[in-house]
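Support reply, case 0932

Customer input (verbatim):
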Amino acid sequence: MALSIVGFMSAHTATYETLIVDHANGVTTVTMNRPEKKNAANGAMWNELLAVARAIGSDDTVRAVVLTGAGGAFCSGADVSGMADGEKQMHQLASMRHISDVCMAWYRLPQPVVAKVRGVAVGAGLNLALVCDMVVADETARFSEIFAKRGLTIDFGGSWSLPRRVGMHRAKEMALLAEIYSAAEAAEMGLVNRVVPAAELDAFVDDWASRLAGGPPIALAMTKRLLNNSLNVTLEEALDDEGLSQTVNFYTGDTKEAVKAFLDRREPEFKGR
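Our regenerated output:
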């Protein structure tokens, strides 16, 4: 885990216009908060999603992250309300590269991230969920790669993450037809990890986040990196990376604590060092 930076403003002490950030028991919950727009991301939200991801990644008090949306929706994608008038604040390619930075910042977080999805997760909103490590949805959730219906191509990493989740043919079906899929259909195709009743979503995600926050931070961060890289390396390269990561683990206090806890027949208390 990254060490805290002297003078650094942590994610949970900063104030945001479009996000609500809470922190308790090692878990930081980031709630996209534009419910009147189904949490569509405008320029301010893109900026704040980037800032909060960078803050979380540098904060060793954060052991797990939950990303969700306010008002019964996850995220309806980018806010395109100004596009019909040609509204833009910067060169379009520069704007897209900025949004790409948001995608990479969330994907590269060392902490495990759970997307908690109610209602719509479409377009960039769906692909934001897919760069999280796990996706848990309730029965109201609906998913779509809506871009084609807006005259757009898939973005926010969807061309990379979607085939890895559902396979190439299903990814093309989703991206080219831009249909809306129910939570049950999303579960069947492997788009989400779990679908739970609406009344149980908070408790289910709280349990997963608590278990992740109680895990060994260094080992989890390296495991996440190994899995993220797995489709880009050979078996030999993967084995070498595993060997290097395991060597680091053997020199941490957390591995020693895990062995001692096993011998003492108790749960380990991991410190991230």
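We compared this against your earlier run and they match. Two observations from our side: The chain is about 45% helix and 15% strand. Residues 1-9 have pLDDT under 50 and may be disordered. Please reopen the case if you see a mismatch on your end.
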